[in-house]
Amino acid sequence: MSIILLGNKCGMTHFYDQLGFINPITILKIGPCIVTNIKSINNSNYMSIQIGYKEILNNNLTKSKLGQFTKFKIKPLKYLKEFSIKKNRKNFKIGQILTLNKLKIGQSLNVTSQSKGKGFSGLQKRHQFKLGPKTHGSKNYRKPGSIGMGTTPGRVLPGKKMSGQLGNKFVTIKNLKIIKINLKENLLFLKGSIPGKFGALLSISSIH
């Protein structure tokens, strides 16, 4: 069965393995999540499920979102996320509660989270460009230099590496091994680091 869950990043710690090496651990608070919708497009192989996470008050929702929860008799949820699935659609039902009980220690997961935003950054920090000459009156110490051709095509090509916002992107970390599972507190301990600040919303999925 496919594993699809939502949660929050709680923090990091470490543990020592049998050989005495120190290993980083990321602690996640996962679920419980609820299946809020199942979608499929006619004459297409596209199928998806929508799951929700964290209950909220009714007055914090629009009428359209509230109507969806009322239709399926589900308590209003703060976060909704849609996942495409290729098979095992019959294993999901609207209103089904998803928890950590399907996971096993040693299993590998993919985790998607939003990295920290670091504001506007220059070329050296954002793309690891080299610095210009520091002596002989050089005025091109941290500047980009020429960014396009003077003749053909006479414009800056798309995708040119330039200054801009650093971070604040969705990043997927693959093959994170499960070290420990706490079903009572809905805590998941994964080996390795995960981008994002503490409390950041993240999604986990199983590796097929």
TrEMBL record:
Q: Name one GO molecular function term.
A: structural constituent of ribosome
Q: Where is this region: Disordered?
A: 131-158
Compartment(s) of residence: Plastid, Chloroplast
Q: Which domain of life is it from?
A: Eukaryota
Record's Gene Ontology CC terms? chloroplast; cytosolic large ribosomal subunit
- Annotated coiled-coil positions are none
The protein's UniProt keywords, in alphabetical order, are: Plastid, Ribonucleoprotein, Ribosomal protein, RNA-binding, rRNA-binding
GO BP term, example: translation
Pfam families in the cross-refs: Ribosomal_L3
**Which HAMAP family does UniProt cross-reference here?**
Ribosomal_uL3_B
State the protein's purpose: One of the primary rRNA binding proteins, it binds directly near the 3'-end of the 23S rRNA, where it nucleates assembly of the 50S subunit.
Q: What is this protein called?
A: Large ribosomal subunit protein uL3c
Could you tell me the gene encoding this protein?
rpl3
